Each structure stands twice: as structure tokens, then as C-alpha cells.
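Forwarding these from the shared drive since the link keeps breaking.
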Amino acid sequence: MNRICQLFGIDHPIVQGGMVWCSGWRLASAVSASGGLGLLGAGSMHPETLREHIQKCRAATGKPFGVNIPLMYPEMETIMQLIVEEEIKIVFTSAGNPKTWTKFLKDHGITVAHVISSSKFAVKCEEAGVDAVVAEGFEAGGHNGREETTTLCLIPAVRRSTTLPLLAAGGIATGEALLAVQALGAEGAQIGTRFALTKESSAHENFKQLCLSLNEGDTKLLLKKLSPTRLAKGTFMTAVEKAENQGAPVEELKDLLGRGRAKKGIFEGDLQEGELEIGQIASLFSEMQSVEEVMNEIIGEYHARKADLCKI
């Protein structure tokens, strides 16, 4: 049996990324109900908001779901205690050292996966005792690793460095892509962008429609002096690119970024002043679908392509 499916108790080796301002209870429960693993994105939620989403997700589906927690979250003690109180069984951590909280989570019977951007960090994950790793390539939306390694280069390198169950992420949104990363050594995929643009995503309609109109090259990895972030075209992206081209120092970029930019763009739909984070793969899609339609399409494509390859 597929180790990812076995580890998380799911039917298909597909995990929905825990994306800020997109991954609320409606999205997570819909993905889980369709046989994947839905994740709530704690990074954009106050603790009590997260508790509300956990309870609503649990009420909406009896299938397994989890929580993604960026390790830069400002109230870590509070959020971890809440995770225990709510008896969450699966946690994906990101943006930090896996050694910090993995033992605490494991001691409470929680399955832990950690998001990485290099094979070096895959080794650290195994040393920290995590149960699975998500290797995320340069193509992904939102915050990226500084290495700028593409998914097709990253997955085989990580596979050589660890025996842990491995999910691929970054530029994966179709059944063919799922099959491709499995051929490289991954056992499943974490998909963000395509789920961010579904009907159940909590992202604003303006944001979804903009992203569904993007062409190749309409996203760029910027803010490298702060935290590399893939942004979609818009007023803010243009301002950041101009500042960086002029050699703006870190403090100037921090002032430009300000506070609440991602919420303004993704959740409130301000396409001029907001920070519009999305992956390169958005350019393949132009129609908003439901989670059920996306899952059925990915799974159907996967099996059809696999059958085709067996004929070659």
C-alpha cells in the first residue's frame, strides 16, 4: 500500500496545502471528503479562529484532516496546546527547525510532516523524528526556500537523502504531474495553487479570477532579501520588483511590505495594494472548479496516463 495513504489514513496520496487565507474548514473538509488530506492553514488564524475551524471541519467530515503550522507563528505555545486540546492527529510544520516541536507533537500521538526545500533539511527532519517530508520546489506559490531548486531536481535529491515517506510540492496540479513525481521517488503530492482557486477556498473571488487569468511568466519570485515569495502580477509586485532592481536595502523592503499585505490581497481581494501569492502552475487553469471536480480530474488523469505509459 502507498505509504502516504497508510500514514494519513486517506484514499489518494494527495494533500491540500495549508495556505494562508485560502485553507479554511470548507476547503479542508471538501478535500478530505474526496479522499485526500485536507489541511487547515493556521498561519493566518488567531488561536480561537483556528479552534473554530477545527470544530467546523470535524463536523463537516468524518475523514482525517490536519493543520499546517508555520514555525514562525507568534503564539506557538498557545497554538500547540490548542492542537493537543482539540485532539488533532496530523500536523504539517513549515518555515522553521523541525526539532523544535516534533518531539512535543509526537509525545501527544500526533503524526508530523515537515516542509523542506533541500535534501540537507530532509536529513535534519529524519534526525528530528518526523514521520514524512514535503519537498517543495521553486515553482510553488507563497514563501519559497532560498535554494531556488525546481521540483524535478529536488525530489530525486531528497529521495536519495532520506527513507522517510515523501510528498512532492511545487508546480503539481494534474494527474500527469502526480505520476511524474512518483517516477522520481515521491509517494504523493501536496497541491496548493489548484486548491486555492477552487470554489471552497476562502480566498477572495477577485484573487481567484486574477490567478485564473494568468499566463506563463506572470508570477515571479521576489523579496529574496527578506523571505523569498512568489507573487502574481499586480501593482505590489511591480513596486517590489522596481525596488529590488534599484538595490533597495532590507529596511526599505520591510517598509514596502508593511503589515497585512497578504490578507489584503488574497482574503480581501485588493488587487492593487495586496500581496498576491500563487504558484507558477496557475497559468494552466482558467475555470473555477469545485474540490470534488478537481480531485476527480486529477485521479482520472493519473490512472489514464499510467495506463498509456504501460502500453509504450
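-- next protein --
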Amino acid sequence: MVGCLGGTSLSAAPGMLIAAYADFVDLDSQLWHLNDREPALPYKDGVLSPGTMADWGGHSS
């Protein structure tokens, strides 16, 4: 299992890296925050997405 109880998008991002190897994934705690970090991980129709490298301090392609 991988999860981030009480964390923001910043704590969910590393969990996304290992989520494919986990039997259970619970990476939605950032949705409970009134003010998540910016930029927040995109969440639509029950699917959490990693966003872009530029969102996380990387270089955009």
C-alpha cells in the first residue's frame, strides 16, 4: 500500500512513482485541504495526474 494521510500534493507526488507497484493506493488526501500547494496535482474524474515537469521545478520540453 502507498498513501499520504494528511499530505498535500507535494507528498502525493513521490507516491505516484511507486503506485504502480502497490496493491492499494490512497493518494487523495490533498483533496481534503482547503488550500493545497500550487501547483496542485491535477485530479479529474477520480484520476490523479502528475502534471508537468515545469510544475515541479523541472524544465519544460
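The two ends are 32 Å apart (CA to CA). The beta strands are 2-3, 25-26, 43-44, 47-48.

- D.
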